[in-house]
């Protein structure tokens, strides 16, 4: 059996198990949406690439299950806006903009709704998704659920360690504010660029559409790889919390990543809200100071793109230089030693320190860069 047919059959069996009361057409519609429009591509993928695609499908299905499938359209839409509005980085940016604008009566929810509506009206990817979903099923309610799940997954895609929705918000500001894309300069010339740009000799041309298609494909591949890393980090961190902290901490993490508020988590786990807040602080401490720093540093840094060797701890070149200048000579030597790939023992011998002292200093360096990155 071909890979695409085998995968589709497994998803159909899973849908029948998860939702035994749903109709056959509902099961098939969700399966078609999960597998994607060009199912033949699955037959041509390597085992590694296929694993990434399957993880991506799993991620999209989990979003659909948690907030959109089997609920009313109004509830599903509210779940989407609440989920997107709960992004801390986006919420802070919107609140700052509202505070500085003339429209101070607007709320975060209002702005998120406008951005989502603008995406549905103009974003090419979401319009392609709407066209594909209309082919997956004729059930309007199911179409609505599949579309909202697609919107959430698309808006949460990480671009340079920030959700894609944050960049769409910045585009929204440029269009809605003066001097944005909707206003043309009155004195400057406007240059129109065609799909092809000729070389000076005009014997050849560079097709911008082909370059754009290639870039979109590479971005999609990179996103799928990040999703695999994200799920792996989540699973390993949950296991770490269960074994080293408290099984309840792992349950808190799962609910938190699903978009539950602290109050909702307290109600679900039947735990006092004060204990939930202490649990959040404990999970945050272990996430940064133990799991990311000592338990699985390579896994976390590859996912966040904050490795010392390749990404300078996630700092821009300017911040990296400022950060280095703020260190004393011994700290710089330790930092350079880790960046060059030397072991803790080798660095300790060179600086006449104990390995534990080197690790203590490295912890300070890592947390210092983490704080600087978050401040900016």
From TrEMBL:
List the InterPro entries. HetZ-rel_2
Going by the entry's taxonomy, the superkingdom of the source organism is recorded as Bacteria
Task: From the Swiss-Prot or TrEMBL record, give the protein name.
Answer: HetZ-related protein 2
Organism listed in the record: Zarconia navalis LEGE 11467
